[in-house]
C-alpha cells in the first residue's frame, strides 16, 4: 500500500492509481471490431485516388521526428488532456496515405539535416553537411559549390507564379529552411562571421546573405536567427546586451524591406508577438518575422519568452492567410525544428512537447484547406536514437518509470528505469564523473523527476550531443496525388512527387496530357476568379435572385389581371420590398 501511495505521489497522472487506464468497452471484441469497421470504411472511400492537380502544396517537416517520436508525442498529446494517451488520434494520424523514406546521404549511413533537406526539397541526395548542392560538391570546400547547385521545389513554385512560404521554429537560415533557397558547402555558414577563411577568400556567400538574395522568391518567412542579419555594431531589440553578428556592416533586414518596397510590395518585418498579431494578411504582400536572435523557444518555454512569440500553429495560419491570396496557389514549408534539438539534449519533455505543437500546426492547416486542391505532406528528415519500451502499463506518463500493474520495476542493477531512453547522448552520466562509473553506475531514478524540462533521459553511450538515427522515417500525405506516397521511397523522391502533383518545375509533361487533372476547380463569375466555396456561395446568390425574379414576374402577371384590386397593390409592394432585400 505504501508503495502504491508513493507511486501516486511521484506520478502526476491519477489514471493508473484510481482504477484502470482503459475503458470497459476496450475489453470487449465489439469495440475493436467497430473501430476496424470505421477505419475500413474510410479506407474504401480513398480507393479512388484523387488525381487532380495540387494547386497548393504544404510540406510539414518534423526535424528528427522518428516514428517512435510520433508515438510518444501522441501519448503526450493525450496525457496533456488528462487522458491515458495511447488512444489519442493525432491530426497527422488521419492522413490517408503513408510511405517510408530512406534517409541516408550519399556519404553517410546516418544523415544530417542539410543533406536530407537537399533530398526532400531539391530531389537530389547530397553529401553530409552540404545544402542545395549535388553529391559532387564537398563539405566545407567553397570551390566545389560552383556548377553543383540544385534547385528546390520552392523556387520551382515561384517560377510557376505561386506564392511561397517558409516557417520554422529554428533559425530561418538553419539547415531545413535554408534547403529551400540556399546552396552552400557548409550548413554552418549561417552569417558572414561563420564563413571559413577559404569561403571568405573565394567569395562564397553566407546563408543569411543567400536568404536576402532569394527573398524576391519568398512571400512569407518566419522563424528565428535575426542576429545573422544585422551588423555587429548593433544590439538585439529583445536582449539589449546581445550584439548582432554581421561583420560586413550590412543590415539585411532594412535591405530586405527596401527590396520588397522597390518591387511594389506591401512588406512587413516583425520580431515579437504583438507585431505578429497586428499583421493584417489582407494588407500584407510580404512578411518576414524573426522572433529570436537564434532559434525560437521550445514550445514548453514559449510562454515565458520576453517579447512573446507566436506558436507554430499561429505562424502556419498567418502564412496560409497571406499565401492563399495568390490565385495560382502556393508552396509552404513548415518545420517543427526543435523536436530535433530536444532529442539532441536527451530532453524528452521538450522534444515531445514540440511534437505536439507540430501536430497542432498540421491540424490548423487541415482546417484551413481543402483536400480537393491542397496536397499536405508530413515527414521527417531523419530519425533519432530515441526509443520506448519496457512493457510499461497503459497510461504511464510518457517520461515516467516503467511499472507493471502499478508496481515500479527494477532493472538488474536494482534500480528503476524509464520506458523512454536514448542510444547515446549526454543523459549517460547521471551524477558523478565518468571515472567513477562501474558497470552498474546508473543513476538511481527513485524519486527523480524524469518529467522535468531539463531532465536528460538515460543513454547507453556517453556523447556530448545525442545523434540522429538511421532508420526510415514516415511520409504521410493527403489531398491531390497523395497516393503517390505508398511504399518505401528514396527521400529524394518526395521533391519529385511534389513537382509532379503540382505540375511545377521539371516534372510536368503529364499535366498537358491530362488537362482534366490540371484544372483548378475555379470558376469565373462576373470576371472574378472564384474557388470552390466562393463558387457555391455565388451559385446560391444566383439561385435566390432567380427566385425573386420569378416571383416578381408571377406577381406582375396577377397585377395585370387585377389591375385595380387592392390585393394586386399589396403584391406589388411585396415585390418591391423583395427587391430591396
Ligand atoms: C565588428 O566587425 C568588425 C569587422 O570585422 C571588427 O573590426 C569589429 O571589431 C567588430 N566589432 C565588434 C563590436 O565586435
Ligand atoms: C534507490 O533509491 C531508493 C530510495 O532512496 C532506495 O530505497 C534503493 O535502495 C536505491 N536502490 C539502489 C540499487 O541503490
TrEMBL record:
Gene3D superfamilies: Alkaline Phosphatase, subunit A
Signal peptide: 1-19
CDD domains named in the record: ALP (cd16012)
Bilayer topology term: Lipid-anchor; GPI-anchor
Record has Transcription regulation as a keyword: no
Listed EC numbers: 3.1.3.1
Originating organism: Clavelina lepadiformis (Light-bulb sea squirt)
Cofactor(s) required for function per UniProt: Mg(2+); Zn(2+); Ca(2+)
Transmembrane region(s): 541-560
Reactions catalysed, as given in the entry: phosphoethanolamine + H2O = ethanolamine + phosphate; AMP + H2O = adenosine + phosphate; ATP + H2O = ADP + phosphate + H(+); ADP + H2O = AMP + phosphate + H(+)
Alphabetized UniProt keyword annotations: Biomineralization, Calcium, Cell membrane, Disulfide bond, Glycoprotein, Hydrolase, Lipoprotein, Magnesium, Membrane, Metal-binding, Phosphoprotein, Signal, Transmembrane, Transmembrane helix, Zinc
Keyword flag rRNA-binding: no
Protein name per Swiss-Prot or TrEMBL: Alkaline phosphatase
Amino acid at each position: 500500500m505504501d508503495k502504491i501511495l508513493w507511486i501516486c505521489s511521484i506520478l502526476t497522472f491519477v489514471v493508473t492509481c484510481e482504477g484502470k487506464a482503459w475503458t470497459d468497452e476496450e475489453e470487449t471484441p465489439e469495440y475493436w471490431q467497430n473501430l476496424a469497421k470505421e477505419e475500413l470504411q474510410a479506407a474504401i472511400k480513398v480507393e479512388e485516388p484523387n488525381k487532380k492537380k495540387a494547386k497548393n502544396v504544404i510540406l510539414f517537416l518534423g526535424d528528427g521526428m522518428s516514428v517512435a517520436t510520433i508515438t510518444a508525442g501522441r501519448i503526450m498529446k493525450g496525457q496533456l488532456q488528462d487522458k491515458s494517451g495511447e488512444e489519442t488520434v493525432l491530426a497527422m494520424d488521419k492522413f490517408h496515405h503513408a510511405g517510408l523514406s530512406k534517409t541516408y546521404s550519399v556519404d553517410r549511413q546516418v544523415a544530417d539535416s542539410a543533406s536530407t533537406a537537399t533530398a526532400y526539397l531539391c530531389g537530389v541526395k547530397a553529401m553530409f553537411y552540404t545544402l542545395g548542392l549535388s553529391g559532387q560538391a564537398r563539405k566545407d570546400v567553397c570551390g566545389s559549390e560552383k556548377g553543383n547547385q540544385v534547385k528546390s521545389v520552392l523556387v520551382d513554385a515561384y517560377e510557376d507564379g505561386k506564392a511561397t512560404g517558409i516557417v520554422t521554429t529554428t533559425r530561418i537560415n538553419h539547415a531545413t529552411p535554408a534547403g529551400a533557397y540556399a546552396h552552400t558547402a557548409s550548413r554552418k555558414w549561417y552569417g558572414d562571421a561563420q564563413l571559413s577563411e577559404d569561403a571568405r577568400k573565394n567569395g562564397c556567400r553566407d546563408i543569411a546573405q543567400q536568404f536576402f538574395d532569394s527573398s524576391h522568391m519568398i512571400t512569407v518567412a518566419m522563424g528565428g536567427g535575426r542576429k545573422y542579419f544585422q551588423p555587429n555594431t548593433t544590439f538585439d531589440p529583445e536582449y539589449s546586451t546581445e550584439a548582432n553578428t554581421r561583420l560586413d556592416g550590412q543590415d539585411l533586414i532594412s535591405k530586405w524591406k527596401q527590396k520588397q518596397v522597390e518591387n511594389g510590395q506591401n512588406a512587413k518585418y516583425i520580431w515579437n508577438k504583438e507585431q505578429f498579431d497586428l499583421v493584417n494578411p489582407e494588407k500584407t504582400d510580404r512578411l518576414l518575422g524573426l522572433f529570436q536572435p537564434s532559434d525560437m523557444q521550445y514550445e514548453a518555454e514559449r510562454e515565458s519568452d520576453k517579447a512573446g512569440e507566436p506558436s507554430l500553429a499561429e505562424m502556419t495560419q498567418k502564412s496560409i492567410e497571406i499565401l492563399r491570396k495568390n490565385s495560382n496557389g502556393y508552396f509552404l514549408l513548415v518545420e517543427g525544428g526543435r523536436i530535433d534539438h530536444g532529442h539532441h539534449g536527451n530532453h524528452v519533455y521538450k522534444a515531445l512537447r514540440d511534437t505536439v505543437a507540430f501536430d497542432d500546426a498540421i491540424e490548423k492547416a487541415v482546417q484551413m484547406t481543402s483536400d480537393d486542391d491542397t496536397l499536405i505532406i508530413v515527414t521527417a528528415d531523419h530519425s533519432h536514437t530515441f526509443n520506448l519500451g519496457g512493457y510499461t502499463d497503459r497510461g504511464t506518463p510518457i517520461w515516467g518509470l516503467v511499472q507493471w500493474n502499478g508496481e515500479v520495476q527494477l532493472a538488474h542493477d536494482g534500480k528503476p528505469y524509464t520506458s523512454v531512453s536514448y542510444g547515446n547522448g549526454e543523459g549517460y552520466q547521471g551524477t558523478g564523473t565518468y571515472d567513477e562509473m562501474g558497470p552498474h553506475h546508473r543513476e538511481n531514478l527513485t524519486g527523480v523527476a524524469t518529467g522535468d524540462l531539463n531532465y536528460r533521459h538515460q543513454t547507453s553511450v556517453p556523447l556530448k550531443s545525442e545523434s540522429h538515427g538511421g532508420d526510415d522515417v514516415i511520409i504521410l500525405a493527403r489531398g491531390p496525388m497523395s497516393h503517390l506516397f505508398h511504399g518505401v521511397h528514396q527521400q529524394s523522391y518526395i521533391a519529385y512527387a511534389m513537382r509532379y502533383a503540382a505540375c511545377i518545375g521539371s516534372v510536368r509533361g503529364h499535366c498537358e496530357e491530362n488537362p482534366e487533372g490540371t484544372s483548378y476547380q475555379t470558376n469565373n463569375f462576373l470576371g472574378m476568379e472564384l474557388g470552390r466555396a466562393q463558387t457555391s456561395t455565388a451559385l446560391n446568390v444566383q439561385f435566390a435572385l432567380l427566385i425573386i425574379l420569378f416571383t416578381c414576374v408571377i406577381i406582375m402577371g396577377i397585377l395585370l389581371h387585377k389591375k385595380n384590386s387592392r390585393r394586386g397593390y399589396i403584391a406589388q409592394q411585396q415585390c418591391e420590398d423583395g427587391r430591396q432585400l
